[in-house]
Design brief:
single chain; alpha/beta; FAD/NAD(P)-binding domain; five-stranded parallel beta sheet; 8 helices; about 35% helix
Length: about 425
């Protein structure tokens, strides 16, 4: 089967894309590398909670369950995504890790590790923003004998008990991990800039109510380096109390610690980088879809270099909320609308190609038949002349019989009979 679209990834982005493809009546399949839908959510740390309420954390067509004003935890999100896939009976193939995508004529050919290959007219890359943890390489980092890890691999605090831990990063994830670890370890948040807080609730309403009402959530009002900490007051209170504390970013590593910006040396057991993620799109490398840094070349979710290729779930793909549960559905709808228009244009091209091909075949047939008709007329003329020559005194009836006989003879030469028999003497 050749699908209208193949969606890569069954996380929040892929499921939202699948919903809108289904609503549009298109033939599609979602390829998921894991054993179940859910994307990266099952792999985040146990205590993770959203900074948006359930009211603003839904995918299109199915509200997030529970009290609208509660802040869902990781396991709730995982359960919601899996129930979403089942609710809409989205066509998901699990265990289908995509190795590469290449052009095959007017189609895309998608090769997977264990599920063979698939073909489609369009591709929606929905592996999102959380596929590749970003781990910086700081001065003398290779010399450090302690533990270095990314927050993507952090699960729970027990194994860090009594340790000296640095958490690098100043967004909500870093703060949540830091405060949790501070219950069992001595923890510092190391950031390049002072922490920036944004009240979680304003005038009794969650901040996302105001962001939606003002239209800011539909813009790029924040850049990548100015993400605030959404805080009810709990985070600021804990950090002010030193649980954890916050210090300017250290300058470099030593074999068993770090050197702070003021020149102090301190022994450290573990450094956790909560430094975000990068989109992981190696399967698009052969298409010329990525720039030299591996970033997707796209505008509002449509590839600017590969016709028929689309994206959902990239950070700031269209707005500041593009990589979130609350924002991915709108982006998916825009992408699917664009995809539909592309398919309509391609269908029209196919129709024109088919019509042109049919006209060409008919022209070739008529050209060939016209040459045959010229031959037929020539043969008829020759046969008539011969019949008249042998019957110079023939009556009109005999001349008519001669014409009929000439037609029979000519038709025989064109394959409508046996010429040798037809042209036998009377």
């Amino acid at each position: 089967m050749i699908y209208d679209a193949i969606v890569i990834g069954a996380g929040q982005a892929g499921l939202a894309a699948g919903y809108h493809l289904q609503q549009a009546g298109l033939r599609f399949v979602i390829l998921e590398a894991g054993a179940e839908p859910g994307g990266s959510w099952p792999h985040f740390y146990d205590s993770l909670s959203l900074n948006s309420t359930a009211r603003y954390s839904s995918l299109p067509g199915l509200p997030f369950p529970g009290r609208p004003d509660h802040y869902p935890r990781r396991d709730e999100v995982v359960a919601y995504l899996r129930s979403y896939a089942a609710h809409f009976a989205l066509p998901i193939v699990t265990g289908a890790a995509v190795a590469k995508i290449e052009r095959s004529g007017r189609f895309f050919r998608v090769t997977t590790g264990d599920k063979g290959y698939f073909k489609a007219y369009t591709i929606v890359a929905a592996t999102g923003f959380f596929g590749q943890p970003h781990l910086p390489n700081l001065p003398d980092q290779a010399q450090f004998r302690g533990q270095i890890m990314h927050s993507a691999h952090y699960r729970r605090p027990e194994s860090f008990r009594q340790q000296r831990v640095l958490v690098v990063g100043g967004a909500n994830g870093a703060v949540q991990i830091g405060i949790e670890l501070a219950q069992v370890a001595r923890v510092t948040l190391a950031t390049r800039r002072p922490l920036r807080y944004l009240p979680q609730r304003v005038l009794g309403r969650d901040i996302h109510f105001w962001l939606k009402l003002s239209g800011l959530d539909r813009t790029q009002w924040l850049d990548e380096k100015s993400m605030p900490i959404f805080d009810t007051g709990t985070y600021r209170t804990a950090i002010s109390a030193g649980l954890p504390d916050r210090q300017p970013m250290f300058e470099r590593f030593t074999p068993d610690g770090v050197i702070w910006s003021d020149g102090r040396y301190e022994k450290v057991d573990t450094v956790i980088f909560a430094t975000g993620y990068r989109a992981k799109l190696p399967y698009l490398a052969d298409l010329g879809a990525l720039d030299e840094t591996g970033r997707a070349q796209q505008h509002r979710g449509a590839s600017t270099t590969v016709p028929g290729l689309y994206y959902v779930g990239l950070p700031r793909q269209r707005t500041v909320a593009s990589a979130t549960l609350r924002g991915v559905g709108v982006d998916a709808k825009i992408v699917v609308n664009h995809l539909q228009r592309y398919r309509q244009v391609e269908r029209q091209k196919d129709t024109r190609r088919a019509a042109d091909s049919l006209l060409k075949r008919r022209t070739q047939v008529w050209t060939s038949r016209s040459q045959e008709w010229v031959g037929l007329i020539g043969l008829m003329t020759l046969a008539l002349r011969q019949q008249i020559a042998t019957q110079k005194s023939a009556t009109p009836r005999l001349v008519g019989e001669a014409m009929v006989q000439s037609v029979r003879v000519s038709a025989g030469f064109l394959g409508f009979g046996h010429a040798a028999e037809l042209y036998a003497p009377i």
